[in-house]
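User:
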Amino acid sequence: MTRDDTPSDDAGRTGVKANGSSVDPVTLEILRNQLEGVAEEMGEVLIRSAYSPNIKERQDCSTALFDAEGRMVAQAEHIPVHLGAMPEAVDAIRQYDPEPGDVWALNDPFEGGTHLPDITLVSPLAPDVEGGPGDGEEILGYAVSRAHHADVGGSTPGSMPAGAREIYEEGLRLPGVRLVRDGELVDDVFAMLLANVRTPSERRADIRAQLAAHDRADERLADLLERSGETVLDSFGAIIDYSRDRIETELDAIPDGVYTSEDVLEGDGVSDDDVPIEVTVTVDGTKIDVDFAGTAEQVPGNLNAPLAVAKSAVYFVVRSLTDPEIPPNQGCYDPVSVSAPVGSLLNPESPAAVVGGNVETSQRVTDVVFAALAEAVPERAPAQGQGTMNNLIVGSREGAFTYYETIGGGAGATAESDGIDGAQVGMTNTLNTPVEVLEAEYPLTVERYALRPGTGGDGEHRGGLGLERALTVECDATVSLLTERRRTRPRGIAGGADGATGENLVDGEAVAAKTTVDVDAGTTVTIRTPGGGGHGSPDDRDPDARAADRRDGKRDE
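Assistant: Predicted structure:
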């Protein structure tokens, strides 16, 4: 059962307009912040309750609130590639007619997921509020969490095999399955999930942390309904309308026109051949259409990306080029349309392998859309950042451990500032695993973790520096790498120089950008990440800034 959100004729509610679509501005702002606070608190519960370093330290997870129609109302400031694709997952679960007391799990990239390690939980919110709008049976919204689990089975530890040719190699695939019914865990479903992963105790704890986050969302929504009643529900649509109005104003200020760009991925893990991505961006008043016709057909390897991932990347670019104070929700997405041919790299058909599409292809989509819109708003667009997540996975085939990390690099410079050094760029927003935690939790030793001097592209504003991270594996293990920008440099903009490429080494020998290899105890794996592109002519750089770079060891000369 869901709330009927059709416009109301009841103009007597305090602060509600006759069309039922908005509340007064002061109340709206208060409730918006409270709802975003609920999403943030969900994230805090998940992070603090999780067991794996990937979630509790790196914070590779995202949380959000949706209304009864499946529209995102509020999100925590987490992972862009997670959040932009969440509406697809909610739409998929709503097709199963979820009921109050349910929690549904999903990771199938062809049914609303992104890639298999990202397990999404969706639960209807139906608080029982005495004297309020909630009766415990009517669905008033949905709580959603998405977390990257360090192993979900498949052919290699970490579930990110570089040479995968079909999704079955990448791990356990979950269409919508009911994990909780009437508030009770469905034991056989949970047991089936845990039987198909290498680190079941870690997965059990992390999924329970997600469930705890959903319990908190239900509690906090009930609290809001007790305090503010029906106005909370009226605010859902008003918040979305507010963001839509503001984003349309921003888009209207972008010059109308058709803008194009293209770039490549450096092979798909099966072949080293470049994989082209092409985009045509049409800005027409308050609408923007992004079309990926001309992009490569889906590839044999795992760089295919579900359309939801491409949408996430486009939404991220649009949000980055518009006012950051606009509340992020469904209203920001409504004026944006995204399309890609069925059977292409960005809209593949099952059973295509996709695990790298979420982490690497999404980054290149971000690059090409930024580059296209740089023609329209050059003062807002940054130079290219490192354009990769530098995925490193080390694990035991016996299931003793699985370590997963995305490693930062150089951010692109902007018209106003240097690029950030050693940062997560684009579609990811995680932290690193602290050295002390990494060495305590895994049979790994950190040999080096440092910035790479001179890797940021020169310019009036310098690109950010890449990183070098070297780990010695203290036991026999399997290492998987999914990386990019090892032969194509991140581009500078407005006369700025390109950033440096990255490099992967195993015991000092260069290996491919995408590789899976079994290693012996004592092997050292080194990841050197790309720098960001520069912005503006190097001749215009402030001499004091150059001197500071030399003093701080950020330049070789």
